[in-house]
Amino acid sequence: MDLISRYDKTELKLKQWRLKETSDSIITEWYQPNISPEIFEVLLSGELDIDENNIDKTLNYLIAADILWLHQLLDFLQIYLIKNHSTWIKENFIKVFHIMQLHPTTFKKLQQFCKVIISADPKVLFDSPHFSTLTEEAFIFLLNKDYLQIEESFLWNKIIQWGIDQNQLSPNMSSWCLEDFSNMRMTLSKFIPLVKFENISYEDFNDKVRPYKLLFP
């Protein structure tokens, strides 16, 4: 597929070039650690062969298109992923979301699509086998969004689960020592203020929140 030939190659960021001094001369080389030589070579060739079975590679093209300011390619790849691999995006929501977090101002189409996904079905996030890999920054970002429609008691359980995973603790709280509680308190210090405890029923509060009273300041 001939995509790059339609773009002005001067869009490449000149700041990615640097001087390299050798024993007898100074040469200029292109430097961008986030783009592999293979991906860069394909983009320069103007022939982008999208492999339907290698979505990770397509994501690498997307990241490279952003870094190199290839705006038309950036839009094309986002639309391609949304139209052809929506199921994969749902199954790998956390991975895609982390990539979007690193490119917050450019992956607008993917951001909007992911917003629609998580608004309709928050379980793509909370029931993901990769839930524990969600970064603190990404988790807090999501909790601050009003489109995340879930019960507060469910959210509390997931915050506790995430904290347990980060500290590699047993789900059985009775086995925790004081140091474990201290580590959990530190891990969840930014999350607890985000929980609307007033929206948790009396029964759920007693069953799910009160047992963790040592986590509160």
List the topology elements.
Elements: E1 17-21, E2 26-30, H1 37-45, H2 55-67, H3 71-84, H4 86-91, H5 93-102, H6 108-120, H7 123-126, H8 136-143, H9 152-167, H10 178-187, H11 202-209
Helix pairs in contact: 2-3, 9-10
Protein name: 3096_t:CDS:1
Organism: Cetraspora pellucida
Could you describe the 3D structure shown?
The chain is mainly alpha-helical and 217 residues long. The chain has a domain of 84 residues. 51% of the residues lie in helices and 5% in strands. It has eleven helices and two strands, in the order E-E-H-H-H-H-H-H-H-H-H-H-H. It has a two-stranded antiparallel sheet. A hairpin with a 4-residue loop joins strand 1 and strand 2. Helix 2 packs antiparallel against helix 3 and helix 9 packs across helix 10. The longest helix is centred in the last third of the chain and has 16 residues. It comes from Cetraspora pellucida. This is 3096_t:CDS:1.
> Uncertain segments of ≥5 residues (pLDDT<50)?
1-20
- Strand elements, count: 2
Q: Which class of secondary structure composition applies to the elements?
A: mainly alpha
| Main sheet: strands, sense, barrel | 2 strands, antiparallel
Number of DSSP helical runs: 11
Q: How far apart, in Å, are the first and last alpha carbons?
A: 58 Å
Binned strand content: under 5%
| Order of SSEs | EEHHHHHHHHHHH
Taking Cα atoms only, what radius of gyration do you get, to the nearest Å? 22 Å
Helix content: 40-55%
The averaged pLDDT comes out at 84
Protein name: 3096_t:CDS:1
